[in-house]
Amino acid sequence: MPDELLQRAREGDREAFAAxxxxxxxxxxxxxxxxxxxxxxxxxxxxxxLLSAWIGLSxxxxxxxxxxxxxxxxxxxxLNALRSTSRRPVPAVPLPVxxxxxxxxxxxxxxxxxxxxxxxxxxxxxxxxGPEARYESREAISLAFITAVQLxxxxxxxxxxxxDVLGYRASETAELLGLTxxxxxxxxxxxxxxxxxxxxxxxxxxxxxDERALxxxxxxxxTAQDVDALVALMTSDAWVRMPPLPFEYxxxxxxxxxxTALAGHRRQIAAMVPVGANxxxxxxxxxxxxxxxxxxxxxxxxxxxxxxxxxxxxxFETSVAPYFGLPRTLAES
Length: 333
Prior knowledge:
This protein is of the alpha+beta class. The chain has 2 domains: 190 residues, Orthogonal Bundle (Rna Polymerase Sigma Factor, Chain: A), CATH 1.10.1740.10; 123 residues, Nuclear Transport Factor 2, Chain: A (Roll), CATH 3.10.450.50. The protein is built from 11 helices and 7 strands. Strands 1, 2, 3, 4, 5, 6 and 7 form a 7-stranded mixed β-sheet that branches. Helix 1 crosses helix 2, helix 3 packs across helix 4 and helix 7 packs across helix 8. The protein is globular, with a radius of gyration of 22 Å.
């Protein structure tokens, strides 16, 4: 059947081409997201990949699977995007407090980061990675992983994802990227060293009563602006981030100062609408309009869990809301 679809597609049958590539669309978008860190950029790269595949179908000789051929195109499209242009300009977004915030622990390095909706991960084909993969699929979509990957140079980034996430062998990766095996192995060693340096001792819980109890306590403390209770749920080295703002706060003392400033100058969150992002708990944050009584969206909040504590809190601005099906406003409740 795939051979028949391929032949029909080569003859100009667009429906056959769609049937040929559709099973791989979701995983290719995830791959582009890992490469670029932005869902918007990943969507653009995916469309360019499919267009290139359609145009270049006559050059596909069948020496690899269609899936591997598409990964070659997608990876190189992402590499071209990383090398040929600067990242999309970061929009000016006001700080979520109307007064100067406490001094951040450091300036953020990955300002273009966007969350990835869990709904886009549902129904993906059960493509098991190769035996040499080092990361489980859930870990390889986490915000911590995606952030760390963005700090790698383009070639190292591509090699790490192809080898340690997708499980391609060194020889296959070399062919995909047009490199020698020696170059692949060298890039992989450097990439692994960087990733290991960024790694944390995460022992995440995946659903169940423990996670539900923790997230319930988090929502209660966050909406009540109970800073002491909120900080008590965090690890001692937890991060608070707000891309695209270049402010990052690490540790309970810095988090306490930040959330105290926030509580003193912003109305309480009136509703937290649960969504899923990067296989992590997430919510749409809504404030109540004092005039109309309606609720309006102010951002998307994603937390990371390590054991029985929260080790990262990331606030994203409202432009990502449509990806999660979050309306800008909610009726009075």
